[in-house]
Amino acid sequence: MKKVAIIGAGLSGLTAAWQLQQAGIAVVVVEAKATAGGRIKTVTGKRGTPMEMGATWFGPQHVYLQQCMQALQLQRFQQWQGGYALVEAQGVQELYTMPPHSEPYFRIAGGTGTLIKALVAAVGEQHIHYQTPIRQITHQPQGITLTTRQGTTYTADAVILALPPQLAAHQIQFTPPLPSLLWQVMLQTQTWMNGSIKFAVEYATPFWKNEQPISSIFSDKGPAVEVYDHTDVTGQYVALKGFLSPAAQQLTDMQRKDAVIQQLVQYFGAPAANYLSYTDAIWWDEYIGCNAEQLRLSPHQNNGHPLYAQSYYQQQLWWAGAETAGHYGGYMDGAVEAGYRAANALLAGSLHAKMADKPV
Ligand SMILES: Cc1cc2nc3c(=O)[nH]c(=O)nc-3n(C[C@H](O)[C@H](O)[C@H](O)COP(=O)(O)OP(=O)(O)OC[C@H]3O[C@@H](n4cnc5c(N)ncnc54)[C@H](O)[C@@H]3O)c2cc1C
């Protein structure tokens, strides 16, 4: 095996690239966007507060993710879940004591983006080609050719698809076509969190931790339907972060910001109006796309389907990506698991091939 091309510089593609490099395999990661990370996107506020627009939390059960973090010497810290939950339902606001959680939730110290930064550094920037959206994959006896939207070509001995399967089905033309059963499964694989809108408001002080400390808010009115404390690991950089209702997509950027601040002022009074920065991310607008087909799928539908554990094109095409993971499909843990699985399967496959090539 000389060179492996990996499509997608998200958590899964980067994990696979890193694993293969450690085994001495040359890799090139081709990424559609100008930055790595995919559904992991940490923005930095005016005061330096790391705020997550994408993946944020993980639990003790997410062992693949934590193994990867350990290898990269990244620290975790516990999400604050104490104080009260403010619940707004049918115009009535009530405070509930947060139940003591048997299972804590964690975040990555410095923001989830530090995981991507560490992986990019481990793989090496020079092996990641940005703004390289793949539109065509052609399998030929001498290897696989990838063609970008701009018409540039890459040849490789094997390819790992590390993007959401439904997106691959919509964006990439495969020659020869992939098996029709796999194609159907790809079209019906739900892309986790596709369609969500996340926001964060950065503040100088955590006024929500005053007399009656509030660690989360749930509202049936919105536009913010869930809000959580987003204090960083040092305790010095603070924000409120959460999800907006889908209807907020109809609002302009300014209208969304104003509506969220107004809602927070209703709960906390004047201090909430004194924000430092506001950011949101509409994942419908992002590369993942959103269409009627996606909306009909149930959460995690076909995530971890056994067809994703198989190889195609004579062991030259493999799947990674969170949605293909056998455990915790759609989540960061699944992304890491799938990255390891693809790299290890490819290595095992190429070893078999080498042994078969040997004269007896
Ligand atoms: C709002 C939100 C909140 C989330 N919260 C959590 C959470 O709290 N905990 C958790 O565990 N998980 C969470 N997730 C899910 C988590 O982000 C994903 O599981 C993980 O990041 C997926 O990684 P991936 O590499 O499989 O895919 P992606 O991150 O989707 O990466 C795929 C990459 O492929 C690229 N690409 C796409 N098409 C092409 C193409 N044609 N050519 C080249 N490149 C292409 C994309 O640009 C992208 O960089 C959340 C996701 C979102 C959106």
Compact description:
The protein is of the alpha/beta class. It is built from eight helices and 20 strands. It is elongated, with a radius of gyration of 22 Å.
Record keyword descriptors for this entry.
2 domains, 26% helix, binds flavin-adenine dinucleotide, 5-stranded parallel sheet, Polyamine Oxidase, Chain A, domain 2, 360 residues, elongated, FAD/NAD(P)-binding domain, 7-stranded mixed sheet, alpha/beta, disordered C terminus
Protein described:
The protein is α/β, with parallel strands linked by helices. The protein folds into 2 domains: 1-40 and 112-188 and 292-360, FAD/NAD(P)-binding domain; 41-111 and 197-282, Alpha-Beta Complex (Polyamine Oxidase, Chain A, domain 2). Helix content is 26%, strand content 26%. It has helices spanning 11-22, 63-71, 113-123, 165-171, 180-187, 253-268, 292-296, 332-357, and strands at 3-7, 26-30, 42-44, 50-52, 76-78, 84-89, 92-97, 106-108, 128-129, 134-140, 143-148, 153-156, 158-161, 173-175, 197-203, 214-219, 224-229, 238-244, 277-282, 317-319. Helix 1 packs parallel to helix 8 (332-357). Mean pLDDT is 93; it is low at 353-360. The chain binds flavin-adenine dinucleotide. The site of flavin-adenine dinucleotide has 39 residues, from helix 1, helix 4 and helix 8. The site of flavin-adenine dinucleotide (FAD) has 39 residues, from helix 1, helix 4 and helix 8.
